Amino acid sequence: MIINSINQVSVSGKADVYVEQGSKFIGFLKPVFTEDEVKTFLTSLKTNYPDSTHICYAYMLNPTNKIQKQKYSDDKEPTGTAGLPLLNQLKQKNIGNACLAVVRYFGGTLLGTAGLARAYANAGEKAIKTATLKQVEYSTVFEFEVEYNEVKKIEMFTKENNGKIIDSDYQEDVIFKIGFSNLDLKKLSDKLANELNRKLQIKVLSQRFC
């Protein structure tokens, strides 16, 4: 399955305490790009909520537009009642490179499997609603160098071709790193040659969501 765009978290989300029959649920949505970042995030939750009963989570990592890494944990809740509802929240809202976690404090009343799944899904959804998401495209990131008097043309060209300027380094000349979702190296080279009336040396740096 090819994924052309995902929703990435630009501002993390945290839900207010959600109470279900005495149990308290606190939801968190955090941008993560590697499994090490997931581990760091979960460790911070365990440190900040040491007396919690469960810390359940799901994450989706999107290193390429064909490969997805996904995992969830029920953290000793009944199988499928916690992590899976959280993973489904991420999938339904097409959120990638993110971890959705819920901290639970048990209130003494058993909720049943359906009640648990609903409670975790609600807490996760509340966390998502408090976050800021942005749609990003799977793009090829290029690097090239232009003269100062060409900068405005490059900025306009990037906008017209739905690109994203990732970095601009103003030295003797200006080195741009720009992602384009709809241009390969040849198309970009031809278009820029036509725009600037000269050929540029263009380097392909990576392919990623940006």
Describe this structure in a few short sentences.
The protein has 210 residues and is an alpha+beta fold. Helix content is 31%, strand content 37%. It is elongated and about 75 Å long.
Order of helices and strands: EEEEHEEHEHEHEEHE
Which CATH architecture of the largest domain would you pick?
A: 2-Layer Sandwich
Q: Number of helical runs?
A: 5
- Compute the number of structural domains: 2
Distance between the termini: 19 Å
The overall average pLDDT, rounded, is 96
Total E-strand runs? 11
Kindly report the CATH topology of the largest domain: Ribosomal Protein S5, domain 2
Describe the structure.
This protein has five helices and eleven strands; from the N terminus they run ββββαββαβαβαββαβ. Strands 2, 3, 4, 5, 6 and 7 form a six-stranded antiparallel β-sheet that branches. Strands 1, 8, 9, 10 and 11 form a five-stranded antiparallel β-sheet that branches. A hairpin with a 7-residue loop joins strand 5 and strand 6. The two termini are 19 Å apart. The mean pLDDT is 96.
Please outline the helices and strands.
Elements: E1 5-11, E2 13-14, E3 18-20, E4 23-31, H1 35-48, E5 54-61, E6 69-73, H2 83-92, E7 98-105, H3 112-130, E8 132-146, H4 151-160, E9 164-170, E10 174-180, H5 185-196, E11 203-209
Antiparallel strand pairs: 1-8, 2-4, 3-4, 4-7, 5-6, 5-7, 8-10, 8-11, 9-10
Task: List the defining traits of the structure above.
210 residues, alpha+beta, Ribosomal Protein S5, domain 2, Alpha-Beta Plaits, 2 domains, six-stranded antiparallel beta sheet, five-stranded antiparallel beta sheet, 5 helices, 31% helix, elongated
